[in-house]
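RESIDUES AND SHAPES:
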Amino acid sequence: MDIIRMVVPIAATVTMGIMAGVFGLYSHTVMPGLRRTDDRTFVGAFQALDRAIINPWFMLGGFLGALVFTAASALLLLGAGGSALAWTVAALVLYLVAFVVTVAVNVPMNNAIKAAGDPDGIADLAGLRAAFDEARWSRWNHVRTVATTVALICLAVALLRYGR
């Protein structure tokens, strides 16, 4: 049981770091880079990126992993109490914000642009791009970036508190 109490919080911190990194890269690299492209390149590249990110490594090792390991860390700390539990619960709440934003905002937007089909067969790429609303997608991604980064900090503090 001690090994589980050690490994699970570390796994929560690592997977949260992965998510903060993914969302952060979209905020400061991917979306600003795509913003500078023509409509066909934007649509095709965004579709390709979204298809590529849906894979077991990302889903289990990051997106779902951060949720499961952070929740499991909180459950493991329930009996111990203390500030490590409070920091872990704060991280869980912050990740739930990012998770809900992802499922409610970003994924439906991603699915809509993918549903348009092959960019070579889309008559109005500019219209599709405008309907996608890059600014809205990016704003909500910034929320995910901040939430997961602060959650990562919370988990790091929890590890320090738990180690005492």
Q: What stands out?
A: DSSP finds six helices and no strands in the chain. The CA atoms of residues 44 and 119 lie 6 Å apart.
